[in-house]
Amino acid sequence: xGALDGIVGFHIRLAHGAVYRHFTETFVDLxxxxxQVSLLWVVGDEPGVAQIELGQRLRMDRATTMTIVNRLExxxxxxxxxxxxxxxxxxxxxTAEGQAALAEAKSCIASHEAWLQARFTSDEVxxxxxxxxxxxx
Amino acid sequence: xGALDGIVGFHIRLAHGAVYRHFTETFVDLxxxxxQVSLLWVVGDEPGVAQIELGQRLRMDRATTMTIVNRLExxxxxxxxxxxxxxxxxxxxxTAEGQAALAEAKSCIASHEAWLQARFTSDEVxxxxxxxxxxxx
DNA sequence: GTTGAATTGTATGCTTTACTAACAAATGTG
DNA sequence: CACATTTGTTAGTAAAGCATACAATTCAAC
Lengths: 137, 137
Description:
By secondary structure, chain A is mostly helical. Chain A has helices at 8-26, 34-45, 51-58, 62-74, 96-117, 122-136, and strands at residues 49-50, 78-82, 90-94.
């Protein structure tokens, strides 16, 4: 085996770390994490989505999804209501505060993404997303 | 703002998660994590490296580096010795067990990387690493 | 239609990673 | 020499992930 720099997984880990750190800085005032923002985002896009579907979309198991939904519910951003069509499922909805937080978060994401994409041309961004998608799909 | 799929940071997070999960599966028998393996790898490449330098190479702060070195020391894979040139520094070395574990880990990394790179041509791998490097450098 | 399997949510506990703050020892600088 | 910086260390906090177990609901087989 050659050097650590030749390992693709290593670069993904480092890049993720760098993005995560910048994300945290950007969101320190809002007090939201990556997972919390993406969860809010999905619930905003699909009101009434069930926890299990959320987890599948964000690649989290049920227990992890619970933790994050719990925190967002405690903060008053998300509401649980029993689903009409399937009594096992919890349908999730944003509160007014949740919608406001999501709107703020989206503008923070915009500046975070600008920082990230500043080092790429738009073709490179497209290529990068395409390559990364092959990993997580 | 458009959809979550348009956010580069989101794809990096998902790709990292997928790689992390496969890594964990691959290393469940060895009982090593990504961080532990990369730390062993660096110490193997540069015997006598100080903790602070390790942290810089792997983008970890001192406290986090401590945690991981502690675990590897408890397992008997790594040794701390006070540096001769600078009394503040701890020089790190692999034990014989550490070297054996690293050798095994490298062969696990090889199959993990094969799984990861199977979806890319070698040109794409090169491109991906180049793009990711711009993020974490 | 009832029984048994699968799905979904929930609760609990454990592990890893990451960060902050404070302190001590060694080193470097004025 | 006095003071600041670097490095290691400890302790505490928090997020995220996973496994397990259990209850309620739904689905499937018979």
